[in-house]
Amino acid sequence: MIYLDYSATTPVDDQVLDSFVKVNKTYIGNPNSLHQLGVESKHLMEDATKQVADLLHVHPSEVIFTSGASESNNLAILGVLLKYPQRGKHILTTALEHSSIQETLSFCEKLGYIIDIVPLLPTGEIDLDKFAALLTKDTVLVSIASVSSEVGIRQDITRIGAMVKAYPTTIFHVDGTQAVGKIPIDLTNVDLFTFSAHKFYGLKGIGCLIKRRGIELEPLIHGGKSQTIYRSGTPPLALIVSLAKALRIALKNQPERFQKVESLNHLLVKELSKMDSVVLNSNDHSIPHIVNFSVPGIKAETMLHWLEQDAIFVSTKTACSKDNSSSLALLAMEKDDSVARSSIRVSLSHLTTEDEILKFLKSLEKGIQKLHLK
Amino acid sequence: MEKVILIKYGELSTKKGNRNFFIKTLCSEVERKLALENCTITHDFSRMCITFDEDQLSDILKKLNTIFGIHAYHIAYKVSSDLETIKEKVLEVMKQESFHTFKIETSRRDKNFPIPSMELSRLLGSIILKAIPNVQVDVHHPDVLCQVEIHEKDTYIYTNAYPGLGGYPVGTQPKALLMLSGGIDSPVAGYLAMKRGIKIEAVYFEAIPHTSLEARNKVIELSRRLAQYTNKINLHIVPFTELQEAIYQHGDPAYCITIMRRMMYRIMERLCQKYHAEAIVNGESIGQVASQTLVSMHVINEVTNYPVIRPLACFDKLEIMDIARKIDTYDISILPYEDCCTIFVPKHPVIHPELAVAKEIEATFDYETMIDTIMKNIQTIVIREEDSQVEKDLL
Question: Domain boundary at B163, B184, B215, which?
């Protein structure tokens, strides 16, 4: 099997899984219980929370555990809008966002909010002049992914954040799901920050929303104080510990893992650029972990299943949007429709080998010949 | 060029007869703190020298900044004590600095070095004046002071000085017992006592079920923060419920706090005898609450003649909070759990208690027996600066 879909999800690290199992077996108390067992569980939860906070240079009270990035994104957007209904009806976002942002914002549109999509440069970066022009004192929320899931485009979050800071009532949410564990994170100018453990070798089912002190959220799941007052429900202690551990391991190894992925990326991109029928959609502004390309004329899904025959697993668009339509992200980057209909996302990891890349390239080349003929 | 950290003993080296003891205590503390770092530590009569790998620097500095007795340290370049090398390296070091005025200060620990200190300073200064444009010497207020220390084999060159925590190494004074409640003041009092070299053990008065395990946990966390400055802290947990209830059943509610504090001091004295401690330390600050007026202190203090050290006696609350933030105890202290000083607080506690009245109330019940029972049921936990290994592995 050749797994090249690490941006969809990653296999769990053994040490992380080990902690998960041990905590489940030894810490049986509910952290909200007042007795000894509860207190022990709570203590471990607080240590895990503090570890996450320290790793991201925030305060422990700014860490809210959720079920994953989709919940964090929902909580960030709806939580802000419900808490600050008087602050204006305008929201800014991009065409590169994950479906849990896009769909939530579509819902908000029905509630009467005005959503503006910030234009992109052909590179996929936000056009900062146009962004500045769209930002007004009625803008209640700006939501931008620091790394886009489909094409891997990095945005200059620190700079965008500084621009948002000029509007004291505007809240800046960043979806960092594809960034954490891959590139350095600077939360200086960020108000709300989403990420999820399973993207960096943690477990599925646990994510996080960083919420800066001074900002309030209306909870989406009511039920009183639990790990925080913003998200009720019995805290999943073992998952919380597993997230803290996965984050520690990922950040500790980030530089060397990045280097490894970068060299794999160079190999893959070099070979893909040699192929005449391949159009590269990722560029210098993409993280090396994500290589998005199109083979115009061959439907993305057809290519995906072709590769699957050789036990090679990739994505069309993102795993969360696999319906058979054009990629809105690529259209927003001014790619034409034939490119947008045929895009494949290969996502790499430090676990990927050169051999896997070469096998993938071989299968792809064969597929292009075969499928073009049909 | 190889970099080293130089720790100067400062005030410690004025300790004459005890000097060796002070320095030995400091050295073993530094060695213990840095045991897990892959670095080499050497020391002589005036300084310690730590050789390290560049990527360890921030970890090492973080640890040095938790050791009392370090007044200042320098990050120095170590070169061989040979005139040509010294000339070349001093210039190299100074080229990395941006400055307008400078001063070179040379000291020869090895008096066999052929050039006297003053002369060498002038020589090195002239090299810099020739090589770096637009700079001049200012021996009074230089932008950069470059210090050159010549030893027999090695020479150290440095232009920086970082302040350490100051104080005396923990353990250079005997032990004292700290009354640790969970509030903002008592951990700060403990920190300041340790800064004078006092070894601290903490005492927590617990009144379960009126206080919760979470309150105890808070005290454990506070002890852990204090343990950063030493190795471990023994935390003695005093089961205070029965005695506290008795106090509230007998006598005037206005005197409850006065009596309660007198009982606490009695227990503290017994603990001092038991654990061979020389003094009681607490976070009392004059006038802060009813039991901390001078009159209250006098009446409460009457039960013991052990010295009661009150490092915060003359501090403002804001000053105390500043230190609490600096030592990372503030955020824990403000967690909202009741401790035994905050439960059963009367509406109008007496501000000027009378000793005779307090004694009269105490005569109405047999607190001695209760204290005997309490002494038998004290629980001690050892708190280390790090979490347990089990928990560390999980995370």
Answer: B163
Summarised one tens digit per residue, pLDDT across range B63-98 is: 899 999 998 899 999 999 999 999 999 999 999 999
The β-bridge partners of A313 are A3
Q: What pLDDT digit, counting tens, does each position of B355-394 carry? A: 999 999 999 999 999 999 999 999 998 888 776 666 778 8
Q: Where are the alpha helices (DSSP H) in B81-146?
A: 83-95, 117-131
Contact present, A287 and A212 (Cβ < 8 Å): no
The model's pLDDT over A291-322, given as tens digits with 9 standing for 90+, comes to: 999 999 898 999 999 999 999 999 987 555 54
Q: What's the structural domain count of chain B?
A: 2
Give the CA dihedral A321, A324, A329, A331, nearest 10 degrees.
-170
ipTM (interface predicted TM): 0.70
Q: Of B212, B217, B394, which has the smallest distance from its Cβ to A241's Cβ?
A: B394
Whether residue A34 and residue B212 make contact (CB cut-off 8 A), yes or no, is yes
Tell me: do B44 and B152 sit in the same domain.
yes
- The alpha-carbon gap from A10 to the nearest alpha carbon of chain B, in Å, equals 19
In a domain, B170, yes or no: no
pTM of the complete model? 0.68
CA separation for the pair B179, B165 (Å, rounded): 23
Which of B212, B387, B394 shows the shortest C-beta gap to A23? B394
Catalytic site includes residue A320:
yes
Range of the domain at B348: 175-394
pLDDT at position A322 is 46
- Which chain A residues contact residue B224 at CB under 8 A? none
Inter-residue contact B177 to B309 (CB < 8 Å): no
Distance, in Å, from the CA atom of A220 to the CA atom of A228, rounded to the nearest integer, reads 13
CB pairs below 8 Å between A and B: how many? 29
Domains of chain A: 2-9+254-373 (3.90.1150.10), 14-252 (3.40.640.10)
